[in-house]
## 1
Amino acid sequence: MAYSVNNPAGKVVQDVITDLPGLVAIAVVDVNSGMSLASHSNSPSLNPDTAAAYNTEVVKQKQKAMSALKLQGESIQDILISLTNQLHLIRLNDNGSKFIYLVVNSRDTNLAIARDVLRSHANQLN
């Protein structure tokens, strides 16, 4: 367990684990640094802190693409990456400074429920 419930990021991790107990992994990430502020994994083969750094680049590249396309007044809410057996979701907070990275098994988790859980908890990071 790489989090403490005494800070906002750790509290978000704990709350998401409570709402989605079957998750594979979760991290709360600072977009500027790519550093994981809190994380947890139920899989020994998935390190959410490593994934956090790489997924920060996904977020930054999408932000650059939006800027190049001159998509004014738009902001990223979430990014979904669907793999063969897993769903990887990235949900940014309202000001885009942090995101929640979530990995769930696609057979065990309803996508709409997972997105709703992330939406409700991302607001805690503002």
Note: The chain has a mean pLDDT of 95.
## 2
Amino acid sequence: MEAQQTFVVSIDRDAVVQRREVVRQGLRRSAWVTAAIGAVGIIVALYALIAFRGSGMWPFALLLILAMAPLVASTVLALKLEKERQGWYEQNELPPVAFRMSPKGLELACDGAPYPVSLPWTTVQGFKQEKVFGQFVLHLELAPGIAATSGGVRGLDQPAVRAVVKPSPLLKPTGLYLVKSLDQPVHIIDQALKHFSGGKAGISTR
């Protein structure tokens, strides 16, 4: 890789389209299950407040309502993001390139984002490989304290990027890239990350 000034990883469109459907179904299913659990908890708490009025149980019922409310909120947020994501898919073509590496940094195309994310190597730890919805995906790992306003960073503030790079704690992370949709194997991508970042970035499987 010594002579290379850029390293490009392209995307298999068919694999991504299939993955989109898997994620859509998985997110909707888990969102409704989460909503049902939250709703049942809130109903039980309200019933306890009415049925056992004056028994001193109201603090526990209130705590249960407060504990269940984030579950319902996560469902609303997940379904809202999924609707926005589907609208983007219908209006925009899939980018042919997943990401590029150069001595300057890492440039990422995020599904649903109008423009790429640009990250200097000082802001990147690499990727974490995990299994989500039955398939291996790559999650972007940023250096501690890195945000959209950090020096040299561009594009992290896009809603579609925030949904996968720094997802809400209420949402299940779905990964930035499906491993089998990339035209380079994981070990080659890992080598390229180490090469261009000077050994600071790589792919972890912990």
Note: The longest strand covers residues 124-132.
## 3
Amino acid sequence: MSELSSLFVKVKITKNQFENFLSSSPQKPELNNNWLAWWESRNMYSKMDLTTEWLRAYNDANNKSVLDGWLDAQQAFAFSDYDEASEEWRLGIIFFSENYLEMLPMFAFVISLEKYISESTDNLAIVYPFFWGDSHVSAYINFEEGIASFNNKIQTTADVNPEILNSVTAYLSKKWDELLENTEID
């Protein structure tokens, strides 16, 4: 049985551009070579072809509604931290998904950030089993020169720059502790 992987996104984005992104409608992804190569590079059970039917965006009115939906889903242990001083946004969903088809709308959401973010070598998105300690990486998205793209060479956590992985893991650990502290458990 698979366990839920975690999503972590960190991007440089001005406050104005962040607000523009949140007020924008979810962007329908374009089935292109990057999506297809990423899909083919993943190991999954009962793998089917990635088609425009499967590749979809969220149906919410705007990106803020998408974000709020995840933040309101207590069982997801999601967070959204925007730091005005550093102009950095960190988004995380500790219990995100184990199903690639379910992940697709979030990947479209993340990739659509490319139009709004500032150039930085720190911009990234990763889906990996932070909580469970497995090494499988479902997706790693780079943001370079205004383009977001899947990095298909990253298959396991061993393929991720150790400094980046340690930073991501430390931030998720900190947020996990904070979220647990503020959650009522029956």
Note: Residues 30 and 52 are 8 Å apart (CA to CA).
